[in-house]
């Protein structure tokens, strides 16, 4: 794959944000959600994103996954600039390379758990049997294989969250984006989900995790702290994450 005439090397990041600015609105109503953010996330790396409400965390995830477009700057996935893709090409990249875990789950009510998880693979042309097999493996990975034939309205919030996480991990996703993935889970189950996410990154994916809890950030290799759309990098230890959240610093 080539971007701007160059070929990515094996050391190039899976995700790169290059001086990204996102402004909502115009003129006197303009709000700068991100103010020149640059960030690389490499294969095998899990990066936690922390910050107060309104700091730009969700905007950062939406831009990283191609759900929103930058006002200026570039977002690249495996060297491909998202701003150069339109319509079907952008949808295909998201479907094949990016796994999303949303706060509100975004499961399709008319599909069972296994059908929800298999859907991205089927849309990408995989045979139903093979897609369902991989979906069952992903459901088993997060401990909800018994929910395979259950519809979302027959699941608890925590069960829906784990099905959504399975959908994000199924297949060969190179980038996993998770927005508070443990929000609807008890502490024991939440730790298990974070362990699965950590293992997926250890196997070669790149992960971006939005969380407000320092103990969850401790699973990451480093923490990116956002305040007013500005980013600060640090290590991923729980102690450092807590220090970053101290408004006195």
UniProtKB/TrEMBL annotation:
Citing just one GO molecular function, the answer is: ATP binding
InterPro entries in the record, alphabetically? AAA+_ATPase, ABC_transporter-like_ATP-bd, ABC_transporter-like_CS, ABC_transpr_LolD-like, MacB-like_ATP-bd, P-loop_NTPase
Q: Which domain of life is it from?
A: Bacteria
Alphabetically list the UniProt keywords.
ATP-binding, Nucleotide-binding, Transport
Q: Does the keyword Repressor apply?
A: no
The ABC transporter domain covers 15-249
Q: Name one Pfam family in it.
A: ABC_tran
Record protein name field = ABC transporter ATP-binding protein
Instruction: Tell me which species this is from.
Output: Pedococcus ginsenosidimutans
């Amino acid at each position: 794959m080539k971007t701007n005439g160059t070929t990515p090397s094996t050391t190039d990041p899976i995700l790169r944000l290059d001086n990204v600015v996102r402004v909502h609105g115009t003129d006197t109503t303009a709000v700068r959600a991100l103010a020149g953010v640059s960030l690389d996330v490499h294969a095998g790396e899990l990066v936690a994103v922390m910050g107060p409400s309104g700091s730009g965390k969700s905007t950062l995830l939406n831009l990283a996954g191609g759900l929103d477009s930058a006002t200026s700057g570039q977002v690249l996935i495996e060297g491909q600039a998202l701003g150069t893709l339109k319509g079907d090409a952008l949808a295909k990249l998201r479907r094949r390379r990016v796994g999303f875990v949303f706060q509100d789950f975004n499961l399709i009510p008319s599909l069972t758990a296994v059908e929800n998880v298999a859907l991205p693979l089927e849309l990408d042309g995989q045979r139903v049997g093979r897609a369902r097999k991989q979906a069952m493996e992903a459901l088993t990975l997060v401990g909800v294989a018994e929910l395979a034939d259950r519809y979302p309205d027959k699941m608890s919030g925590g069960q829906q969250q784990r099905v959504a996480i399975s959908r994000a991990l199924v297949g060969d996703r190179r980038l996993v984006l998770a927005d508070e993935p443990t929000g609807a889970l008890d502490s024991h189950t939440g730790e298990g989900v974070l362990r699965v996410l950590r293992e997926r990154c250890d196997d070669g994916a790149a992960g971006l995790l939005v969380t407000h809890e320092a103990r969850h950030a401790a699973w990451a290799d480093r923490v990116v702290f956002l305040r007013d759309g500005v980013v600060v990098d640090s290590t991923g230890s729980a102690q450092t994450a807590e220090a970053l959240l101290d408004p006195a610093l």
